[in-house]
Amino acid sequence: MIGCEHHDSVAAYVLGALPQDEHERFAEHLAGCEACRESAAALTVAADALPLAAVQIAPPPELKGRIMTIIRTEAELLGAAEGRAQAAAAADAMAAAAGDTSAAPARRPWWRRPLLAVRPLHAAAAAVLIAVGIAAGFLLSGGENARTVQGTVLVASAPQARAALELSDKASKLMVSGMPPPPSGKVYQVWLKRPAQDPTPTTALFRVDAQGRADVEIQRGRLKGVEQVLVTAEPDGGSMAPTSDPVIAARTA
Amino acid sequence: MQLADEDLMQLVRRGDAQAFEVVYDRHATAAFSLAYRMTGTRNVAEDVVQEAFLSLWRSGARYDRTRGSVRTWVLGIVHNRAIDALRRSMVHDRRRASDEGIEERFEAPERTDVEAARRDEARDVRQALGTLPPEQCKVIELAYFGGFTHSEIASMLDTPIGTVKGRMRLGLEKLRGQLGGFAEATP
Known about the structure:
The structure holds 2 protein chains of 2 kinds. Chain A is α+β, with helices and mostly antiparallel strands.
């Protein structure tokens, strides 16, 4: 390390105290400087212990409840998608074995891929999909046969976004707030997902107001046999099959 | 028999919610404590922990056991998220005032031997920090818990950047020496 002009930046680097551009430059330097690498490894031992200096405080139980609700919802989506992917792969294999190469898909759509492989809608908005959701659950009833179910919003750039389904005998509605507008030339489209079926399109197309709000009637009456309501961004006029990843997922029960 | 964190992460990678729950239970207190220490605001700390664990769930494939423990990885995510939150909401100024009294009201109970051991480790780290010269301890705390860059700290303390960097290095070297055989508790 002695003799290296970056000597004193090692500690700032492991503490995360270098500005972003300098941090990236130093990371490149580390790759080629063994002395600084060794020093960084040594100081990281101390830096990694620092979190323990914080007084240990138990998180509120409801935080775990919120997180686990989202996790379980996504795990179910993932499991369903994987099951469907396996079924599709088996069908592809059978078709290939029969010499039918036309059955091989160029790219499997998101509802047939594991959810974790799904890319976020706005590539520029985030490199990592950060779903900020709220607990699915029955929050209120507007009458004996009406209830509201919270959905999960899967938009990295809109942590404040919320979605809820209002389900009653009269109508089924989707209410959103804090949602970013759909990309230029696109519109949000609602899809209905039934067990063991691909999502079916609806005519419920919408954009949001300046506050990211929209109240959308999905259909009159109840959503029979529907396990999830999904929303994707589609070309104006909507699509017959989703062309992008879901931005909202809401279980109906 | 309990699965090690590294084994649990393999299950998490496959979308196993139960494995994730175990990982959460093991590290949520350390994660929340760090987030609260950094942001000083309970609601922001909860948001940071939620974002961090959801990120862990969705990016489990990025965990590399050769680069450290799951716990270090989790706390690294929390640290980065908390810095983002600090820079986003500028909660620095509120932190000190809101810190008061929170420890007594919400301090984690020692439910298991592992948690008791971690409490001991926490005490050791705090004591080790306490042995550092104040000016070294200060720059380390401002950098790590405050999320400030070296230039911000230099400006804050009216001290040259080179001096700030030097204090960081000397402080961390001493801290490493103080902690000596420090090893993370394993569940």
